[in-house]
Amino acid sequence: MNAKKVVVIGAGPAGLTAAYLLSERGIPVTVLEANPEYVGGISRTVKYKGFHFDIGGHRFFSKSERVEKFWTAMLPNDMLERPRSSRIFYRGKFFSYPLKAFEALFRLGIWESVLCIFSYIVARVLPVKNPKNFQDWVSNQFGKRLFRIFFETYTEKVWGMKCTEISADWATQRIKGLSLASAIKNAMTPQFITRLHTPMIKTLIHSFRYPRKGPGMMWETCAEKMKKRGGNLVMGAQVSQCVYNTENKEWNIEFRKSLSGKIDSINATDIISSAPLRELVHMITPSLTAESVHSADLLKYRDFITVMLIMKDRQLFSDNWIYIHDPSVKVGRIQNFKSWSPEMVPDPSYNCYGLEYFCFENDSLWLASDQSLMELAKTELEKIGLGAAVDVLDGCVVRQAKAYPVYDDDYAKYVDIIRRDLDIQYPSMHLVGRNGMHKYNNQDHAMMTAMLTVENILQNKKVYNIWEVNQDAEYHEGGERSDLGIRKVPSRVKA
Question: The whole model's pTM is what?
């Protein structure tokens, strides 16, 4: 049997977690990252003239003890404890998020509140049975009226599609356990009692850890520690082909270096891929079945633009971020990076906001010039009342393709078809992470899929079924408990 040598496609949280753990065990590993400058994937921190900003916000909080220990080991002295603060902007008013039931009803007014409560009661008495789409799932939890007020507009901004076209799977992953009843209970219960006696719903966490220089600091450190243990990292490496040799059971991975344009290749016994699943399927030779290739082509992604504005700090809001539910503006969410960590901003007299726009690659927003996007962001910030255009001193624009795998009606069917064929034809191709699994997960979930994948590679069989890792980065499959504190896949369960 060939000695293990692994290639990891993508230096995001999943890819770097896997690479670090493999290097720690003495397994030769090479990470190929398409970005020529940054590691971390969508969890990277971009630097501009001394300012730091994220591509989306990234709270460091997990129910997985193993993930929390990994973070601490990477940055033992650089993790800040930060209060969670986020709100919803709706009809010119701000509402706490997660929703504080009494505050929300008070701000909506007596008549609207009565209608919302009645709508909630109807939803509890006559819920939609087996809800399949986002609208029905959330309406069951909050009532249709609160759904329309606090969920519909923002969700349709994010996904560019109707809530009835979005699978309920997305809601169960992102807001599992949250309902109007749980929001009321949380609001009425002192925090120390909640923490002592009830499992914390992720949506309701009150504080989180955060690297003092942003999430990219975590993954830059992880990459450096991986290299010190013998791992290799190739930046600006765009993978174009993964060719499997049936005779020696090895992969040949071909990639192009973005700076030089040179084509290079490397051999491996195993590939760990966090590349978008749609793209990966087209890289594999010999190709998967026609059904798998067709399924991959039907997978969809939502793209993302961050307009970073450097401003005079007027201390107009202290939230980590604000969700913008107002349909009169295009912006979907506004980050306050100074609230995440003061060290993100080099001068205390300034602040750094990130206005986030959700789009599809090659639509009008995506193709707009940086200057026009800056002007749009300044205008909308002022319209909302969170800043004055004259206070904006500088800024930049970052476009993130394939930020979100789309959960439409049929996505799960397409992913299952591809998974089945990969299991049969290429068991040494391992999918991890958000885009690798076409699964809308947080970084702790992505990391856990990588941790279990490493164990599968070391044991040369799929002992763990990574698809059983839930949105809390917990693994609940049956079977005997391993030395990881995680249950192994029973032999009767297909990995």
Answer: 0.90
